Amino acid sequence: MDDKQKAASKGEDRYLKKLSDKVNGCLENSYSRLGETIADRPKLTIFLTLLLTACLGLGWLRLEVEERADKLYTSQNSEATDDRDFVDDNFGESVRFVTMYYTADGGRNFLENRNAIRDMFRFYEDVELNGVVDNGDLQDLCIRADAGCAKESVLGFWQYNQTTFEADEDWIVTLSQTDVDDDFALSGEIEPENVMGTVTRDESGNLTSVRAFRFQWIIEENLELDGRVESDPEAEDFEEDFTDYTKSFEETFDGGEMRPLTSWRYDEVISEAFDYDAQLTAVAYVILTIYACVVLSSRSKLYSRSVLGLAAV
Q1: Is 73 exposed, middle or buried (0-12, 13-18, 19+ CB in 10 A)?
Q2: Burial class of residue 156 in the structure, from the number of CB atoms within 10 Å of its CB (0-12 exposed, 13-18 middle, 19+ buried)
Q3: What pTM was estimated for this model as a whole?
Q4: Comparing C-alpha atoms, which of 123, 124, 121 is closest to residue 149?
Q5: What is the largest CA-CA distance in the chain?
Q6: Of 9, 58, 199, 263, which sits most exposed with the smallest number of CB within 10 A?
Q7: H or E stretch including 264?
Q8: Could you give the CA distance from residue 296 to residue 306 in angstroms, rounded to a whole number?
Q9: How does pLDDT run across 161-172, given as a tens digit for each residue?
Q10: Is 18 helix (H, G, I), strand (E, B) or coil?
């Protein structure tokens, strides 16, 4: 770098320093005057701080919880939303799926004996025929197939008749079939992959192991909008009772466990998660307030600034 370039560089640095000093001086003077004003009028400062916070917080009075996920994550002016609303208004009814999964723990196999399927028959009769769940409201809620409430399960291999199942000496062979009509399914036939899970077959196609069964009903969905809350009270009451019954069901197959899956339970888990987050937030603010008050406090009332800590939080 030659002498002219060095001189130019020093000149630029000098002007930048003057500008920096000017900005810093203005900020220092402003903060100094603000500090003196606050020191002269501490009560007024605290009052104005609380008043401003209260005014800015008035928006919370208009806050309403939005429970419809599509409203939160989907643009309501989009073409897709308009198309969905058109379909909802002009075509058919919406449905909900009420599902029970029956799984074998560890290395157990449901083909060891008939107990797992007997449990499925007992579960089916209590839910659909005996009115144990929600006083039998399933009959009013379910979508109808040719033979009754639309459903899918392994019981369709015996057309939901336990007497037929008990009389079937080759029940495993029956369960191994892949092309079976089912008047209780909307499709009119059983799809093995939809009603059984974790299966193995031998070379001839017969089942040798099954570790999961699925039972699923299809019910109507009639949503009602109350403010910003959209719900189906009748279906949700049934699903809640269904969930409680499934959890309390006493299985006779050693190592088997039934698990419910419903729209109500899904929404309930999400709601519980948000409630837990809200509690954590409240606790965090309490801890932060205590910390600020302790740090700014002093034994001398003259120099103690604990109230400032409360106002700041």
Answers
A1: exposed
A2: buried
A3: 0.64
A4: 124
A5: 109
A6: 58
A7: helix 263-296
A8: 5
A9: 999 999 999 999
A10: helix
Query: What's phi and psi for 197, nearest 5 deg?
Result: -135, 155
* Three-point CA angle 6, 12, 16, nearest 5°: 145
Q: How many CB atoms lie within 10 A of CB 307?
A: 14
SS3 of 83-152: the string is HHHHHHHHCCCEEEEEEEEEEECCCCCHHHCCHHHHHHHHHHHHHHHCCCCHHHCHHHHECECCCCECEE
Structure tokens at 233: 């009270």
Asked if 247 contacts 81 with a C-beta cutoff of 8 angstroms, the reply is no
Distance CA 242, CA 236 (A): 10
DSSP 8-state class, residue 14: H
Tokens of 5: 């370039």
Residue-wise pLDDT for 73-128, tens only, equals 677 778 877 787 777 677 656 788 999 999 998 778 999 999 999 999 999 999 99
DSSP letter for 159, please: T
Half-sphere exposure of 180 (CA within 13 A, CB side): 22
Residues in the chain: 313
**3-class state of residue 17 by DSSP:** helix
* Tokens 């019910």 -> residue: 219
- Residue 69 burial by Cβ neighbours in a 10 Å radius (0-12, 13-18, 19+): exposed
